[in-house]
């Protein structure tokens, strides 16, 4: 079983978007490319789910088809599901602060971020390497 972790953050600015970074402890799927490079555990799910490289703003800045998310304030629960291999993507506590909850309630959408890194502080390095992915998902806040 894969244990996925989620870290909330909020983009700066007057129309701040809530974001959630996803990662796991184990990054490798156990498969290798013909060149011997380990295949990232989420490689297939990223392709199946319609994710775009973070640098491709046009690719991820419109709501993703087949995705939905909800956030329940009373117990800080985030549930996210998508198409194909992304069905049941995440369900668990988020640890969202007041700024994130406010932005989520105002925007009614969330930017999902994923990369083969073990902590969101390393996401920028993954983006530079072309391995950071994003998706805009409709979000219901209850």
> Helical region count?
4
Give the ordered list of helices and strands. Answer: EEEEHEHEEEHEHE
Major sheet size, sense and barrel closure:
8 strands, mixed
Rough outline: globular
The stretches of 5 or more residues where confidence is low (pLDDT under 50) are none
Class based on secondary structure composition and strand pairing:
alpha+beta
Number of strands: 10
Helix content: 10-25%
Give the quaternary arrangement of the chains: single chain
What distance separates the N and C termini? 29 Å
- What's the alpha carbon Rg, rounded to whole Å? 15 Å
Strand content: 35-45%
Kindly state the mean pLDDT as a whole number?
86
Quick description:
This protein is an alpha+beta fold and 142 residues long. The protein has four helices and ten strands, in the order ββββαβαβββαβαβ.
